[in-house]
Each structure stands twice: as structure tokens, then as C-alpha cells.
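Chapter review. Work through the record for Phosphoribosyl-ATP pyrophosphatase before attempting the end-of-chapter questions.
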Amino acid sequence: MGERTANVVPGDIGVTMKGLAEVIHGRREASPETSYTARLLTGPEDKLLKKVAEEATEVVMACKDEDHDHIRYEAADLFYHLLVTLERYGVTIEEFAGELDARHR
Ligand SMILES: N=c1c2ncn([C@@H]3O[C@H](COP(=O)(O)OP(=O)(O)OP(=O)(O)O)[C@@H](O)[C@H]3O)c2ncn1[C@@H]1O[C@H](COP(=O)(O)O)[C@@H](O)[C@H]1O
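C-alpha cells for Phosphoribosyl-ATP pyrophosphatase:
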């Protein structure tokens, strides 16, 4: 795990998700030498997929520790890697949101 984020202020989930998805999409054009996201988008498929599994496990471990800040931190790591995965496999953030919306009861 890297550095914990300081002074987290609640954000607008829609703006945050869309903004991050747009940044990730833009990294398709970035150099893998300078961008971790570009490396995940263009490097070996298994590197990204393993990362998703690893980050999910880290969320589980943080939950078992009942460590609120750590859960938030690891969930953000997982969510970022999930968005990179959606981008790599061509699922747009709008489709993803539509899938969630379609489940509203
Ligand atoms: N939100 C994130 C984000 N969350 C996590 N990470 C990276 O995900 C990795 C988390 O994995 P680990 O904690 O295991 O760290 P690590 O050991 O360095 O990872 P590995 O190299 O071993 O896979 C770290 O390298 C983090 O920097 C992220 N990297 C980028 N972003 C966003 O993506 C944007 C584009 O960033 P670039 O990737 O630099 O283009 C940034 O502006 C951010 O908004």
C-alpha cells in the first residue's frame, strides 16, 4: 500500500467517477513510460487483471481489520483499477452507470 490520503473531503460521486474515467480514457494516448495508467491499458492483460484481484483482496483485509480509513483507501485503489479495466475492455462509464441504474427497484 502507498501513502494514505490526507484531508479527504466528500465529493460528488458522479463528477468524480466521470472525471476519473475521462482521465483514464485520455491515458490511452499517453506514454507508458510516464503513466502507470497507460502501462495498465497497453501492457500485459494479466498485470491489470491480477491488480484488480489484489486490490479486492486488500479491501477484504481492511474490512476484516475494521479499519475505516484503510477500507476507504483500498476501495479507492480498487475502484480506480476497475475503471481502468472498464476502459481497457471498452465498457464506458455511462454503460456502467446504466447497468447500476437498471437495477433500481
Ligand atoms: N486514482 C489513481 C490511482 N489509484 C491508485 N493508483 C496507483 O495504483 C497503484 C496501487 O498499487 P500498489 O499500492 O500495489 O502500489 P505499487 O506497488 O506501486 O503497484 P505495482 O506497480 O506493483 O502494480 C499505485 O502505483 C498507485 O499510484 C492510481 N494511479 C492513478 N490514479 C489516477 O489516474 C490518473 C492518471 O495517472 P497516471 O497513471 O499517472 O497517468 C491520476 O491523475 C489519478 O487521478
